[in-house]
Amino acid sequence: MTVAEPLKAWPMTLNTGRYRDQWHTMSRTGLSPKLARHREEPMVEIHPDDAAALGVADRDLAQVRTAQGQSIFRVALSEGQRRGEIFTPIHWTDQNASGGRTGLLARPLVDPHSGQPGFKSTPASIERVTTQWRGFLILRGDEPVRPQCLWATRITVPGGALYELAGNGDPARLEGLMPQGDRVEAMDASRGTRRIATISEGRLGGVMMVTRTGLLPSRDWLIRQLEAEGVGGSVLAARGPGSQPDKGATICVCFDIGLNQIVAAIREQALVDVPAIGKALGAGTNCGSCRPALANILNQATQETLHAAE
């Protein structure tokens, strides 16, 4: 076997590690709704140039393979990712996801002197995974369920859990996960969309929304309904009267500030540095662990503004 042959089979190098707000297998940190919603799914981070060459796009599902094993991850494009390498987090197990199993991928090598595992340089490949539908499930309570589909991840939220879903075939089999209660449904055959909710004595027991070709609503308002009273059939609209815009992925956990809020403030208030973001929103002014992310968001928003002005 020549040196070129394994490189052709494994064109990328896999680096593994932890996310900012998680520790080990999330047996404790994963129980915190604030920490869990910073990174809701196990992502494979890849540079945009590598992604284009390998046929994967942002938010795709992708199969990461090594000589040791394989697992599915959500794709996240990152300009900060070194070309020729991909990164996956160590935290997800089969207790909280159907994929994201980084522990299956790394080479069983250790440093001969320190015994440190070689988790930072495993030859790997990445390939796009296609699905026929995608959706989500929100359930009251902390009793976990196991959705039988290609992709399912569990995220702790106030009052219950959010499951991100994707798969092939008929998603109707997942309806058995819905709790007891009065049931309301809405369907759009043209988009292959179905929305189902169960309500008992004005309290939301669960809601499931799936689509084949359409868009999915924000989860935030629906999650808040787990702790609300007087919930009715209008919950299927996934928004209330005068409801706030989607705040986006959580960036500042301390003050629950989302990506969309930060980007809007940068543009509307012409913010020029991280301290200015902190003064405007509070983000980054407590523990400070989100400041590097704020700097990256600021740089990207600034570059987009400059390109738009050209």
From TrEMBL:
Residues 13-123 form the Molybdopterin dinucleotide-binding domain. Pfam families: Fer2_BFD, Molydop_binding. Keywords: Oxidoreductase. Its cofactor is Mo-bis(molybdopterin guanine dinucleotide); [4Fe-4S] cluster. Residues 251-299 form the BFD-like [2Fe-2S]-binding domain. It comes from the Bacteria. InterPro entries: Asp_de-COase-like_dom_sf, BFD-like_2Fe2S-bd_dom, BFD-like_2Fe2S-bd_dom_sf, CT_Nitrate-R-NapA-like, MoPterin_dinucl-bd_dom, Prok_molybdopt-oxidoreductase. This is Nitrate reductase. It comes from Sphingomonas bisphenolicum. The lineage of its organism: Bacteria, Pseudomonadati, Pseudomonadota, Alphaproteobacteria, Sphingomonadales.
